[in-house]
Amino acid sequence: MLLRRILYYLNPVNLFKREKVDINLRFMHGINKISILLFLVCLVVMFIRWMNR
């Protein structure tokens, strides 16, 4: 259930969906999505580097 919500939140189709909310809230959600994606990329890079040792 939690994984499904995270995948829905990070879905690229939903990334640029127009929401009728406050502009500040839209920017906050955009920054949160970028932060989560960067975190996941860093985890993958760290795992790959760990496997190459």
Explain what you see.
The protein is an all-alpha fold and 53 residues long. The protein has one domain. Helix content is 79%, strand content 0%. The chain contains three helices and no strands. The longest helix is centred in the C-terminal third of the chain and has 29 residues. The chain is elongated and about 50 Å long. The termini are far apart. The model has no long low-confidence stretch (mean pLDDT 83).
Number of domains: 1
User: Which structural class matches the secondary elements?
Assistant: mainly alpha
Give the integer mean of the pLDDT values.
83
User: Stretches where pLDDT falls below 50 for ≥5 residues?
Assistant: none
What level of helicity do the residues show? over 70%
Based on Cα principal axes, name the global outline: elongated
Sheet bearing the most strands, described? none
Series of secondary-structure elements, N-terminal to C-terminal: HHH
Number of strands: 0
Radius of gyration: 14 Å
| End-to-end CA span | 35 Å
Beta content: under 5%
What is the count of DSSP helices, taking H or I runs of 4+ residues? 3
* Quaternary organization: single chain
Concise synopsis of the structure shown:
It is built from three helices and no strands. It is mainly α and 53 residues long.
List keywords for this structure.
mainly alpha; 53 residues; elongated; 3 helices
